[in-house]
Amino acid sequence: MKEISLIANAKLNLYLDITGKRSNGYHSLETVMQSIDLSDVITVSTDSSSDGINITCSSPLIPVNRKNICYKAAEAFFAAIEREPRADIHIEKRIPHAAGLGGGSADAAAVLIGLNTLFENTLGMERLLSIAEKTGADVPFCMTGGVKLCKGIGEDIHDIEPLPERVYLVVMPDFYCDTRGAYMIYDENPLPRRNGLVKFLKAGEEFPQRVYNVFKEIYENDRIDGIVEKLSELGAEGANLSGSGSAVFGIFKDEAAAAAAAREFPKYFTAVCKPVDVGIITIEN
Question: Could you give the residue ranges of the DSSP H alpha helices within 137-221?
Answer without folding.
Answer: 139-144, 179-188, 197-201, 214-219
